[in-house]
Amino acid sequence: MHFYAGLLIGPFLLVAAATGMLYAASFQIEKYVYADQLQVPVGETTVPLSRQVRAALDAHPDGRLTAVRPSAEPGVTTQVLLKDPSVPADRSLAVFVDPYTAEVKGALPSYGSSGALPFRAWVSELHKNLNLGETGRLYSELAASWLWVVALGGLLLWIGRRRSGRGGRARALLLPERGATGRRRTLSWHGVVGLWSVAGLLVLAVTGLTWSTYAGENIKEFRTASGGATPTLSTAVKTPGADSGDHSGHEGHDGHEGHGGQKGDGNHDGHGAAAGTPAGAPAGTGSGQSCHETGGGGHADAASGRTAQAAPTDIGVDRVFEIAHEQKLTGPVEIVAPRDGTAYVVKQTDKQWPVHLDSMAVHPATGAVVDELRFADYPLLAKLTRYGIDLHMGTTFGLVNQIVLFALGLGLVLLTLWGYRMWWLRRPTKDRALSVGRPMPRGAWRRVPLHLLLPLIAAVVVVGVWVPLLGISLLLFLAVDLAVGLVARLRGRGRNGNRDGDARTAS
């Protein structure tokens, strides 16, 4: 399994590892490339958040407010997210505003809950689907489906090889062999790097599968059935003039920030275009101003400039921000603007350990807290899913996390290349100088005792159904192996028949 999977899935692993390395580096590259939009000189005092929102809307009159990400630390801009016709439907237009002067510093398309800007968003799509859409996602799921199999198989092979050694067994496991040359040297480096990488590769494989298309859907169904789904924040409110439609609420922080787009769970960076608000939804604050600034009964429609009927009063983003602080929702937050019949949503966005991911819904007319959702109250599976996604994305431990991910990607690239080199070095050289390596001997399954073989087959079937791309590709491997064996037997019979005929002729 290790030989065939490594040989045939190797190209997919190489692409996933290389693009994953690039994504791990994209966080720091983004800070450098977009420094003019992200950073400003530190001022003495900040202006009201509503004034910053108004400046963004004045600069982009065709935009419709969807969310605000207030400046969370000195020298960092506020991001006002707009639904704007100038960006694709799955993006928001992030307008960067100086929190000290309300000066607009620029605007860029923004992707998802982590606010990925154009470069990181492009790399994210490259890693997820090679920028080929839904069809391209099959490559990343195939790579994740086999990565854990290859990693565990390699671990067992490496430990098995070293168990028979005498003296220095621990060193032989953990460090490359001294003085080795040729294929033996390559094998030593392959085994040692694989041993040091195996735990991280298993985490990447499992977390990558959680938001894949087919295995991810199975995992989601299991979480729901076992009570481990991410809880939902209730955002429905009754306000004068509100519609009577059914608003199902705002899901917690399970927008999958990865290679994603899992049905019902967001895309690679979570919320997509509207950061939790349906595309085109009107802003509850209208222009981002409080009721005192607009003069009461109506507000300017952010998308068209027309006066639109809404709730008689709207407490505005400034008061919502104050309420969030009163309720201990501090640090980096995102304020999602309401639509008719829904509340403001304020959610913490700090995914670095220890995470701060609480959220609350605030009535747009009264300021009452409609609902609260504390991360501490999440089911265990929901918490583990969140932790796993953020580890995979490189946000849990910040720069250290990203360096580790880059190192794992580099390790996987080297392991794959070393594996191909060993295969090449095993080639016959006397008769067929350009041949490639010999496959492993056939018949391994038949040598397994029946009392082990039957439960092993059952386990493989269960895993193949649970991880469909693994099961389908495994069936293809077995079909090819059976075909190769059949051809070999037919050729053998043909050669034996020719020898018997020659013997009869000679006699």
Notes on the structure:
The chain has 507 residues and is of the alpha+beta class. Helix content is 48%, strand content 10%. It has an 8-stranded antiparallel beta sheet. Strands 5-6 form a two-stranded antiparallel ribbon. The protein has a two-stranded antiparallel sheet with strand order 7-8. 41% of the residues are buried. The chain is elongated, with a radius of gyration of 29 Å. It is built from 14 helices and 12 strands.
Give a brief description.
By secondary structure, the chain is an alpha+beta fold.
Q: Specify the overall morphology.
A: elongated
Beta fraction of the residues? 5-15%
Number-wise, the strands total: 12
Question: Helicity range of the residues?
Answer: 40-55%
Structural class: alpha+beta
Biggest pleated sheet: 8 strands, antiparallel
First and last CA, distance: 48 Å
**Over the alpha carbons, how many angstroms does the gyration radius reach?**
29 Å
Question: Please, what is the average pLDDT?
Answer: 83
Number of helices: 14
Contiguous low-pLDDT stretches (5 residues minimum) are 242-248, 253-311
Following the backbone from N to C, one meets helices and strands in this order, namely HHHEEEEHHHHHEEHEEHEEEEHHHH
Strand order of the largest sheet: 4-3-2-1-9-10-11-12
Task: Describe this protein with a few key phrases.
10% strand, 507 residues, two-stranded antiparallel sheet, alpha+beta, 14 helices
Set out the fold topology:
Layout: H1 2-33, H2 35-38, H3 49-59, E1 64-69, E2 78-83, E3 92-97, E4 104-110, H4 118-129, H5 137-163, H6 169-174, H7 182-210, H8 215-225, E5 232-233, E6 250-251, H9 291-294, E7 298-300, E8 307-309, H10 316-326, E9 333-336, E10 344-348, E11 359-362, E12 369-373, H11 380-393, H12 398-425, H13 450-466, H14 468-506
Antiparallel strand pairs: 1-2, 1-9, 2-3, 3-4, 5-6, 7-8, 9-10, 10-11, 11-12
